[in-house]
Design brief:
30% helix, four-stranded parallel β-sheet, 3 helices, 93 residues, alpha/beta
């Protein structure tokens, strides 16, 4: 059961988002998920990271057809969350 979804919206700061996710996924807990909201010009870095990491706690919401505002990128994440609780953090948190 997923208790917490940690949302990480990002735009062209993939390395920060990957570092944050990597640190959280070092946890042995399995009751949370990380949802990366990519709004970057190049979707490959985060897509490759999620594919290579191969952890069911990590999911990716790929970029929209056109760049979104910061607010729109943040607001598109909650409908995709599976957790009972949601936390949205900055990609460099």
């Amino acid at each position: 059961m997923t208790l917490l979804t940690i949302c990480i919206p990002t735009r062209n700061r993939q390395s920060y988002a990957m570092d944050a996710a990597r640190h959280m996924l070092a946890s042995s807990r399995d009751d949370f998920e990380i949802l990366l909201g990519d709004n970057s010009d190049d979707p490959a870095p985060l897509a490759d990271f999620v594919k290579e990491f191969d952890d069911s706690r990590l999911r990716l919401l790929p970029p929209a057809e056109k760049p979104l505002s910061m607010q729109d990128n943040w607001e598109r994440l909650p409908p995709h969350c599976r957790g009972e609780w949601i936390s949205i953090i900055g990609d460099d948190d």
